[in-house]
Specification:
It is a single chain. About 40% of the residues lie in helices and about 25% in strands. It has a 3-stranded antiparallel beta sheet with strand order 1-3-2. The chain is α+β, with helices and mostly antiparallel strands. It has a domain of about 70 residues: Alpha-Beta Plaits, CATH 3.30.70. The chain starts with a strand and ends in a 14-residue tail after the last helix. The longest helix is centred in the last third of the chain and has 30 residues. It is elongated. The protein contains 2 helices and 3 strands, in the order E-H-E-E-H.
């Protein structure tokens, strides 16, 4: 049985998010396919897998969860860079901060 999961993530950073998660589309289980599309301020990720056992369905779900976590992380990093928040309060070696 073919099972599919579709993730639609709306963000002003959709281009950057799509580029960042493309490397996730490697070393997939044999029957899994992932497509990533970006447009109109939205990233669409479609996962498809031939599910033959309960563990296959869990693999599909866990992969979707991991992709969503990566999307959220990219969003936070981009937001932190844009606001200048990244690195604040971090002492560098030899610094008198």
């Amino acid at each position: 049985m073919i099972s599919r999961i579709r993730i639609e993530y709306v963000s002003p950073n959709s281009t950057e998010i799509a580029k960042a998660i493309l490397p996730d589309n490697v070393d997939l289980p044999n029957s899994m396919k992932i497509s990533v599309k970006e447009g109109a301020g939205k990233v669409t990720v479609e996962l498809e897998m031939d599910v033959n056992a309960p563990k296959d369905l869990l693999t599909l779900r866990n992969t979707a969860d991991e992709i969503m976590s990566h999307m959220e992380l990219v969003e936070k990093v981009i937001g932190g860079v844009a606001s200048g928040a990244l690195g604040k309060g971090v002492k560098q070696k030899g610094s008198s901060q």
